[in-house]
Amino acid sequence: MEVDLPDTSYRLHHVEDLWFDDGDIVLQAGVAQYRVYRVVLGMHSPVFKDMLAFPQPPDSELVEGQPLVVLQDLEVEVTAFLRALFEPEFFPAFPAMTNFTTIYGCIRLGNKYSVDFLLRRGLVHLSSRFMTSLTRFDASARGDHEGLYTPEFTEQKPANEIVSWKPPLDRSFLICVIALAREVDALWILPNAFYDLTFHFDALQDNIFHENLFDGVIPVVLSRKEQREWVVGFEDQISTTADIVRFLTYPPVIDGCLTPSKCPLVRFRAADYGRQMISSFSRGPLSAWAEDDWDKLQKLCPVCMKKLRELHQEARRTFWEDLPDIYRLPPWTELLKLKQAVIGDILA
């Protein structure tokens, strides 16, 4: 006879790296328990200091003789947060490499429990991937190959070209980022985050409008307000892609062209390729004409090539400057002031 085995997935368990035999307080998040030290919690967090200052009721629950405090936070958040407090090397300062889940937990609980150094450190790491200038957007290595996330790479690059964490394969992390940035008032994160959300729309359309879980544990949901703002911005963003490659056909004649009998024909032929780029990169206008694509125009005279590069970059700058407004956010000037006040100029 087949017997159903008991489900052990929801049994309480000790988090081994955060269970100290001489710890004097037990925290619990979900089914995870942590035995740690009051003095360390209180030293870093005024919220914990106040919380633990109240005497425990005589009938309060004990775990191995120590008082139990149940937190209304996710295990994945609490584990990252406590490891960052108790293991100095676990969450190093930028530009050392880290990961999204650690950043998420440290920002969210650093904010909730007023651990300012963890909140700021997490926001610096998070900001390394979400740019506030087109120059940095272009200068930063945006590919996701493994070599980007090695000490050897970071040692050779200035801080403003380093991205300190690899994006999860599950792009719904972008929705977590948007919700988190709203929660901690890190609004400078949002223009680039919304841009990337639109870029990955095909993979994320269900997540945008229906609650799901990232990594099986972190809720993924946009508020109704964010959904409305994203929908409006989505239309504006994709309509801009044609403007980015408009330089291929307009103006039809470049002043000072050295070979007027040839250059218009070269541009006409490239324009057909440009239409393919509009279709392929309709949701990512900044990628609609990449450096390799200039090979299609290599037979242009130097005057036309120089002018077209200027027109292309001018269109990209205009889009970037308009990006916050596209998603109903304050202008870059205000966002940069907020960023400077919170994390300084390490990523300027």
Task: Write structural notes for this entry.
This protein is an alpha/beta fold and 348 residues long. It has a domain at 242-326. 49% of the residues lie in helices and 9% in strands. It is built from 14 helices and 7 strands. The strands form 2 sheets. Strands 1-3-2-5-4 form a 5-stranded mixed sheet. The chain has a two-stranded antiparallel sheet with strand order 6-7. Helix 1 (38-44) packs across helix 2. The radius of gyration is 25 Å and the shape is elongated. The model is unreliable at 1-8 (pLDDT under 50).
Task: Give the H and E element order.
Answer: EEEHHEEHHHHHHHHEEHHHH
Fraction of residues in β-strands: 5-15%
- What is the distance, rounded to the nearest whole angstrom, between the alpha carbons of the first and last residues? 67 Å
How large is the radius of gyration?
25 Å
Strand order within the widest sheet?
Answer: 1-3-2-5-4
**General shape:** elongated
Structural class: alpha/beta
Helical coverage, percent range: 40-55%
Number of strands: 7
Q: What composes the largest sheet?
A: 5 strands, mixed
DSSP helical segment count: 14
InterPro entries: BTB/POZ_dom
Protein name: BTB domain-containing protein
Domain BTB: 23-85
Organism: Mycena indigotica
